[in-house]
Specification:
With about 475 residues, the protein is an alpha+beta fold. It has helices at about 20-30, 35-55, 70-75, 95-100, 135-150, 190-200; strands at about 5, 60-65, 85-90, 110-115, 160-165, 170, 175-180, 210-215, 225-235, 240-250, 270-275, 275-280, 285-295, 300-310, 325, 340-350, 355-360, 370-375, 380-385, 400, 405-410, 420-425, 440-445, 450-455, 465-475, 480.
Length: about 475
Amino acid sequence: MLAFLLPDLGAGNQFATADLQFRLHEKFGEADITYNAAIWSAIQNIAAMAHQLDPNHPTLTTVAEIGGEKVQHIHALCPAIDIVGINTYAGTASIPQRYRKAAPHRDAKPYMITEFGPAGVWEVRMNDLGAVDEPNSTDMVEWYRKAYQDFAGDTSHCLGSYAFAWGSKQEATATWFGLFLPDGAKTPAVDALAELWSGKPPANLAPAIKSLKLNQNDGLRPGDTIKATLDATDAQGDTLKVTWVLYQDSKNYHTGGDAQAAPPSYPDAFVTSDAGSAEVKLPDSGGLYRLYAFVEDGQGGGTVANAPLRVQGPQAEAPRTPAHEAKLPFALVADRIKPPYIASGWMGDTAAISMDEACIDKPHGGKTCVRFTYAKGDGWGGVIWQNPANDWGDQPGGYDLSGAKQLSFWARGEQGGEKIKFGFGAIGRDKEYFDTGKGEVEVTLSDQWKQYSIDVTNKDLSRIKSGFMWTLGGQGRPITF
């Protein structure tokens, strides 16, 4: 058994959320969280505690790739970690060499590849359409085969590897990550891994795709007709069934790793289709689309290829996912309620933010209030109340607050004079599940409770995922309110 360790990086912890800080680093250019000694200290403390509770099992912590000084920091600051876990995609082939360079000493910790697969969508160039080209299932086999052989050849350090992912997953596309098709059919990569593990191939191999070609993929107009041709074979001569699907392209190529909702599909787009070709009438709106050919042999094997295409003009907004219904008046923060929104969206210098959700220091009403401290005099920070928690627009959720006239709240500063921006609706329309409305007010607090409000009349409140938020800039001293 292995103990997979992560520090408690919840919103109420001084270390904040690691995944959130990574995303903030990408967005705001902050320092890499892996240079934060507090993170490694937390991991070391947890690993040491695990050894005290159970000295008979090794501990492991996982990092995404080994750039920077991650390996060096684990060796220097985390002696209680026994194994280094590594998630890697495009960098698979060079991991053994790079790891030995990062940890050249004789007593270097062993490592395990906790995720590997083909190059991620964040590691490939966009094509001229502004989309990514996905290798078909047959082409992906070589990624898995080569990666496994590279790791298996490192007998001095590598303990083993896990191919990602043993299922299907909508992430960037419907099929980029996943060793099985959505209906459970195995892909050729499964056959390749089975052969690598056992020394012999399965009795019945999944079908193979040589090519999927479109007669045109750009300069198209809404309602145009295109033709796709598919060249697929089966080593056992099984009769192949091909299912054609046209999707909107998700255009969601971020690296968060969360599962995404499938984009809209167009089942009525196919004029004709068979095992070798399809004639497709394009939708009435512009934008990026992706044509898939799912091939199955009837014996549990399958393979898939897709091709992106662009239609001139703006893309129609995808059908909106319904939000949870809210009954007005609707309490976001109050005693004795299950909070509909969670204060999970920490921003800016999160290490300087602390939160007490059960403060009893002279609350305005009820038994408690919420107290925040920003402990620095410079920089900036903020917190968003989210539904669902930790989501920045990649998951359905939120509340339908239609009919509301104002958002009101009471606030006070510890000293008075604290300048804070309050608002709601932080997720823009560049995300799939955005806030349909937003509002903001900047106030200078008194040391006495005062009620503030934001007018929301005539705003589209049909899906509010960021129910409340505050931000502040450094004011030359710590701020508590």
